[in-house]
Amino acid sequence: MKSYRKKLVFHLPTRRAFVNITPQIRQCLQESGIKEGLVLVNAMNITASVFINDDESGLHRDYERWLEKLAPEKPYSQYDHNGYEDNADAHLKRTIMGREVVVAVTEGQLDFGTWEQIFYGEFDGKRPKHVMVKIIGE
Question: Which of 17, 80, 103, 112 has its CA 20 to 30 A from that of 51?
Fold first, then answer.
């Protein structure tokens, strides 16, 4: 069995954003040479997320509104966590959106369902964050 690992770095200029990282994951898969196996894509920061969904701008705006209703950024005083950093809402949003995804690799390709893409979700941006890609297989 072969193994491949790479860290991707994201430094987004906004506090919140959704980025389609499927092209970067495909590039990692190509670099790995693995044809059959699994890809793990994992957000390495507690205020960021990795998830699978449709790459549709209306859906992304819906996520933004929905997440803001569930865990509004302000007022900062509503959260016990806030103090050193005012990012409690980002921690909660990450919990809702998830930490990682696993995708099957079949015949050297990501084995997606219809419309599926991999996204990086940023909830407390403006600084470097990491996503780890781990691919195992043959």
Answer: 80
The pLDDT, as a whole number, for residue 129 is 97
Q: How far apart are CA 29 and CA 136, in angstroms?
A: 10
Rounded Cα distance, 32 and 125, in Å? 29
Structural domain range at position 17: 2-137
- Taking the C-alpha atoms of residue 54 and residue 3, their distance in angstroms, rounded to an integer, is 28
Number of domains forming the structure of the chain: 1
Q: Is the dihedral of CA 42, 44, 46, 49 positive or negative?
A: negative
What are residue 136's DSSP bridge partners?
3, 38
In this prediction, residue 75 carries a pLDDT of 96
**Which residues 6+ apart lie within 8 Å of 14 measured at CB?**
122, 125, 126
Return the H-helix or E-strand segment holding 92: helix 88-97
**pLDDT, position 82:** 94
Read off the CATH number of the domain in which 124 is found: 2.60.120.460
pTM of the model: 0.95
pLDDT at 84: 84
